[in-house]
Amino acid sequence: MRIPVAIRAARRSPLLQVVKSAAATIAAWLIAGWVFPAQLPVFAAIAALLVVQPSVNQSLSKALERSIGVIAGVVIALGLGWLLGSPGWIVLLAVVVAMLAAWAFRASPGTGNQVAISAMLVLALGSSTPEYAVARIVETLIGVAIGIVVNALIVPPVLTAPARRDLGLLGSELAASLDRLAAALPHPQTPEKLQELMVEVRLLRPMKDAAAASIAAGEESLTLNPRSAAHRAQLREMRALLDRLSPIVTQTIGMTRAYFDHYDDTIGQEPAVHAIADQLRRAGHDVRLAVQIADVAPEPDALTSAIPALTSPLVITPPASGHWILIGSLMEDLRRIRGELVGDT
Prior knowledge:
The protein is mostly helical. Helices cover 71% and strands 0% of the residues.
């Protein structure tokens, strides 16, 4: 029996994140227990556990969400306790009222759940006196503060490595796609080979999305991070490279699609096709060069020259046959690729 995908992540969280969450929870429990010895510091421990997030900025957002949710939940529990006393069913009523209040104020799902949970815990574990309510709010703030401090002081995570990896993989695959199309253009292709070209080039879109998501996560990890100064320039360079490669991904997919749609066995006889194939190989070289210059290449290619290969625009004569639609489409896409690589857009 396979474990459902819904309860497993694609990859493990860093062990350091687990250690930080545990340390924050233990510290919050001990400190809040010392401040409020009469009650188990459940609110503080939960707050610290939830506040420790992959980035300091996310920790502050979670802290705000947690604090507002607890305050609102405690106020709802306190009000219902004053009005209705302490019958057992008041806990269920508090949950319903809390959820409706969160819905009315358009609270986020996390804040709405926190309002309901806090109201339920106040009524189930304690009493609805003002003293108890204030103590739980202060206890939560203690846990929130400890979670933020622990996350900020114990090696704040800087997510530049995943961004570098995904961008390097995108650049390598993009160059390989250009080379594959260049190799296919001058020679006859079987339907299976044409279909394989399309399948491989379509992988570029999810790879581009993955690189964009990793760079965004890296930028998020630097917000309010005391270690951000040493990494911000690297992420700016990665973002700039992704902005250059993204249009080339679109053009490469378009060129491959045009070749697939308009293919016949005589295309390779066009002199222009050989010239275009040579330019595609040069473009693949320059993509690899751009990736290496940005220091994101997974494995630098020793055969890649440090000199750009796209040195001058390609000029060809009109095709001599009925392939002018395909040749024109390839030329326009190739012009745009060259513009992105040489900065002449």
